[in-house]
Design goal:
Number of strands of chain A: 3
Structural class of chain B: mainly alpha
Radius of gyration of chain A: 31 Å
CATH class of the largest domain in chain B: Mainly Alpha
Number of helices of chain A: 19
CATH superfamily of the largest domain in chain B: MetI-like
CATH superfamily of the largest domain in chain A: MetI-like
Radius of gyration of chain B: 29 Å
CATH topology of the largest domain in chain B: MetI-like fold
Largest sheet of chain B: 2 strands, antiparallel
Strand content of chain A: under 5%
Strand order of the largest sheet of chain B: 1-2
Helix content of chain B: over 70%
Order of helices and strands of chain B: HHHEEHHHHHHHHHH
Largest interface: A-B, 87 and 87 residues
CATH architecture of the largest domain in chain A: Orthogonal Bundle
Oligomer: heterodimer
CATH class of the largest domain in chain A: Mainly Alpha
Helix content of chain A: 55-70%
CATH topology of the largest domain in chain A: MetI-like fold
Number of domains of chain A: 3
Structural class of chain A: mainly alpha
């Protein structure tokens, strides 16, 4: 024992344990390590658990027993044939015979029967004559675990009702338009609306985003306006999406109304709250994202490729077009898909712009009113009642599956097209 | 004079011998492309300018109207457009309360997950855990709104605290769900910061006999502090600007309250509700949402700039 180590022992901070103390010290530190390890793992597990619970809640609401009651037995109306097999004319006759003359005329005024499709007439018959009405909705877990109890309750409370297992997500749900009756409602026109909006968004955002990235990486020199644009793009990516909605409302819906409503092109029955306004707004929203992703992809292309191209006498644009962009393509594609999925799930700006929560027609031009899947989810979630919750859950599955497919494509593309230098 | 001219001619002779001139040929197409490319880059400036002009213009109309003045806007605590009372504090407090609840959930959990992923997990485990977290980040916020309203409020909050104590729309449920929403953001940004800390630092700590925990908490986390702080600030900005969760779950009606179990509308929720209905462009309600949006815009801008500043100012540079 030298004098120095004795000195150390006297100093409170530099104390080195000896003998049995060493083991105790190590044991305490190991225990503390194990406890914190558990804490770190559990915080990750809580995150994963949240995801699992989210999926469970959605699935739980989408499937399950429903008790259905009809005003009239459809077999009686048709003499034993199922309603689905009847022709349009027969359906119109059933409708004429069973609703009041005034109501029948009103349907004809809304959209003449001669122009209606068979499906639309069938929907009217189901809604107005058969009057299929859902009187009770059960979740998936109850339906699987407590079947007897549900059967007993339904027999007691709704003696005329039939209990059936129903998937709220089905083919009719995917193709039908909106309806105020949940079981007849669908996301058909919302899917179409989403596709229209995405198409316009991407038509604008892809070329502008890529060229903007090319400017920042290939053309710009370090000047004040380059730095301004760069900072600006990074800050724009952090602006809340609802602000873009406000921008779209003031600029596209109001200021450019004659353009976005189509009045300039001879469309008369519309205001500025159209697919075109939504697409333009969404394009501004995803543009910073597109540019940032394109920049990263372009930056990853090695300098030697550019130098080789210049060395052979190519001009700047020839170098960019024939060498830089093809090499950056995988990254740009991934960024594009991520932007698409961002635009697909975005709701707030479209609410501000004035997406319609209730339209029954299918949009067929960019100057039409529109609705998109997230807007329907928002609308249905905010309605009271278990049936609306169930169709909201079904619409969420449609949205999430689409987004998952997009993201999986992005990952696949990234892995398949990646080159290493 | 003559002599000078001859000298000039002699000097220029070698150049004129050269058969091709490689310099200075104007390329019209290249210049056009350069302009197009510049315009595409500069469109972002248009977006920002348009945002600022639109917000200021309508907010100017709002503050210019006889019913409102700045002192009332920032100094009173009632927001009732119907009776002409415009004090932004009820909207502001609920925005802050939901955001702070979200941060209380997201920061410890996100940081814990980030430390686990970066310091403890094996490369394989990280390989499949990170994409799952990214899925969580890719879920649209309206889906979280549905989750808050149909699961967090009725099952968790009303289940734990009793149905009579928790309103159907409440700030706690919106805040908790928002915390889950921004958790992946905090986790992934912090994980990037932690992974960027050089290996040599960790090896130095292990060499001195530190445990894995001591290395993580005393060496790696302090070294990555700037990145972690930046992540927290970005998360705050995201929470303040988030709309769909609060629009669905926090309540539809401004209320000045600090009780998170009560319903109170946030700034974003109010904008969404007012603009979702059919309002006339001339009404004061229409201009009022621009005034709120202006406040929101500057709050998030400030937070984003602060985040960038923290990240660069306090960065520890190695090597």
């Amino acid at each position: 024992m030298s004098a120095q180590s004795l000195d150390q022992r006297d100093r409170p901070t530099g104390y080195l344990p000896e003998g049995a103390d060493i083991n105790r010290n190590i044991a305490v530190r190991r225990l503390r390590g194990a406890i914190w390890h558990a804490i770190f793992v559990s915080s990750l597990i809580i995150g994963l658990l949240a995801l699992a619970t989210l999926i469970y809640t959605i699935v739980n609401d989408t499937f399950g027993y429903i008790a259905v009651q009809t005003k009239v037995d459809p077999e009686e109306l048709t003499g034993g044939r199922p309603l689905e097999e009847l022709s349009k004319e027969e359906l119109i006759e059933i409708l004429r015979a069973n609703v009041s003359a005034g109501l029948f005329r009103r349907f004809d005024r809304d959209e003449p029967f001669s122009e209606r499709s068979r499906e639309s007439v069938l929907q009217l018959v189901e809604e107005r004559v058969v009057g299929r009405e859902v009187v009770a909705v059960y979740k998936l877990t109850e339906s699987l675990l407590e079947r007897e109890r549900i059967e007993a309750t339904v027999r007691e409370r709704f003696p005329r009702a039939k209990l059936e297992f129903h998937s709220w997500l089905n083919r009719d749900f995917l193709t039908r338009p909106m309806s105020s009756v949940p079981i007849l409602a669908g996301v058909g026109n919302a899917i179409l609306g989403s596709l229209w909006v995405i198409a316009i968004t991407m038509l604008l955002a892809i070329p502008i985003g890529i060229l903007g990235g090319v400017y920042l990486e290939e053309y710009a020199s370090d000047t004040w306006y380059y730095r301004l644009i760069e900072t600006n793009i990074n800050n724009l990516a952090g602006v809340p999406s609802i602000i873009y909605g406000i921008l779209g409302l003031a600029v596209f819906v109001r200021a450019f109304e004659s353009f976005t409503s189509g009045a300039m092109f001879g469309v008369t029955d519309s205001n500025g709250r159209t697919i075109l306004s939504a697409g333009l707004t969404m394009a501004l929203l995803v543009l910073p994202l597109m540019i940032i992703n394109a920049r990263e992809a372009i930056r990853a292309v090695p300098q030697s490729i550019r130098q080789a191209s210049y060395g052979l006498g190519a001009t700047k644009w020839q170098t960019v077009w024939h060498h830089v962009l093809p090499n950056a393509l995988p990254g740009i594609l991934t960024g594009t898909i991520l932007s698409v999925s961002r635009a697909m799930g975005e709701t707030a700006p479209l609410i501000v712009i004035g997406a319609s929560t209730f339209i029954v027609f299918f949009p067929d031009s960019v100057f039409d009113k529109f609705t998109v899947i997230p807007i329907q989810i928002y609308n249905w979630t905010s309605q009271p009642g278990a049936q609306f919750r169930s169709i909201a859950a079904a619409a969420i599955i449609v949205l999430l599956v689409t987004l998952l497919a997009l993201n999986a494509t992005a990952i696949l593309l990234r892995n398949r097209l990646r080159r290493s230098y | 004079m003559e002599q000078e001219a001859r000298v000039a001619v002699e000097r220029s002779t070698p150049l004129s011998i050269s058969p091709i001139n490689l310099r200075g040929k104007p390329r019209f197409g290249e210049n056009v492309i350069e302009i197009i490319v510049f315009v595409c880059g500069a469109i972002s400036i248009f977006t920002t300018t348009a945002i600022v002009i639109v917000l200021f213009q309508e907010a100017w109309l709002f503050f210019g109207s006889p019913e409102v003045d700045l002192a009332e806007f920032f100094g009173t605590t009632t927001w009732q457009p119907e009776t002409g009372r415009f004090g932004i504090w009820p909207l502001m407090t609920s925005t802050l309360i939901t955001s702070i609840i979200a941060l209380i959930v997201a920061v410890p959990l996100g940081l814990g997950a980030a430390i686990y992923l970066s310091e403890y997990a094996s490369p394989q485990a990280r390989g499949y855990l990170k994409p799952i977290l990214e899925v969580l980040a890719g879920v649209p916020t309206v889906v979280y709104g549905y989750f808050a309203l149909t699961f967090v409020t009725p099952v968790i909050l009303q289940g734990l605290l009793g149905k009579e104590n928790v309103e159907i729309y409440n700030m706690l449920s919106a805040g908790l769900t928002m915390g889950i929403m921004i958790l992946p953001l905090v986790a992934s940004m912090s994980e990037d910061a932690l992974s960027a800390v050089p290996r040599a630092l960790r090896e130095g700590a292990y060499g001195l006999g530190a445990t894995r925990l001591e290395t993580s908490l005393r060496i790696v986390v302090p070294a990555a502090m700037s990145g972690i702080l930046a992540a927290v600030i970005v998360a705050m900005s995201r929470a303040v600007g988030e709309t769909m969760i609060v629009a669905l779950a926090a309540g539809a009606g401004p209320r000045f309250t600090f009780n998170p179990l009560q319903a109170a509308e946030t700034m974003t929720g109010h904008i969404a509700r007012i603009s979702g209905g059919d309002i006339s462009y001339a009404s004061i309600q229409y201009t009022s949402i621009f005034a709120i949006a202006l406040v929101l815009f500057f709050m998030t801008l400030l937070l984003n700039l602060l985040s960038g500043w923290v990240a660069s100012r306090f960065r520890e540079v190695y090597e």
